[in-house]
Amino acid sequence: MRSATTFFTCLGVLLGVSQAYAQGQPEPPPPPPPEPSPLQLATGAANDPTAPAAQGAGAQAGPDSPSPTGDAALAEELPEEPPVDEDRDEYGRRDGMHGFELMTLRGALSRASVDGDSDQGIGFLLANRSLIFGASEALSYRALFAGDIGGGTGGFEGQLRGEAAFGLQTYLSGRHGAFLRAGARGEMLGNDVFYQSLIMLPDAQLGYQHMSSEHGFEIGARAGAGVAGRHNVGEFRRALGSSIVYGAFLNYGRDSFEFGAAWVRIDGQKDEPSSPVDILDGAACISGELEEPEVPVALCLDGRYARGKVQLRNGSAIGDANVIYAGVTLGIGGSTTED
Question: What are the phi and psi torsion angles at 90 (to 5°)?
């Protein structure tokens, strides 16, 4: 019993001594300051105890914020590398394409006059339209097709038009630049009221193109040789033989809207009448998608105006001819843009 009392007495004395020793110990000294980083050594901030540590792009650290040191400070000062655009090639160019396609029913009005005497017709046709232009690296391209067949008060009526050109694309940046292309162009269209045709070979094109994920745009000038053609109005005729053809074109399209315009002048003919023939074409479309069933639809308006002198078959009279050919179409189709 005495031994147990002595043990617990010694244990209490030891605990009291250890507590008194712990309360009398001073606080441990603070850790030494961190070594200056290479950036601080370069700017002289290591010798200025009041200078804040560099953080991020020059921001000052708060009183409780730890300061970056060493390689961490240098890494925060370096600008981030721009993201890599995987769509660009080694020269910074981007591929881009815009296309429009439409299968439709078309109602058309044709009106032609020679020196005030006019004739007109109304027709209904099955029609197809397609257009594509764009660039792939250093290659620029453009292709167009139109085909109609039907009839009406002006008799049998139809249209067949096509063009294709390929060439070089230069870039002012990854999305836009100038192009130089060469190809061929041909068309024939009309009814008993009028008839026009033209074969253009070559068809040289020079212009500017801008492509993005939302739209396609190009504008250009063209020039070439007219190989053969016709400009007929009623009983009046005109053969477009060897000639010089030049003009301009513009196309703009996005998901729900399409617009195109073109002008050509056929000039430099030797046979009478030798005055130029001007042809102006234009078209505009809006498109969307039906919910039930899910089908893309488009509504388009198109028109052509042509003027130029014509003569009777026996050459006894020459007159000024004007042609208006307009239509409205409703069908399946729309625009596509890829970037």
Answer: -65, -15
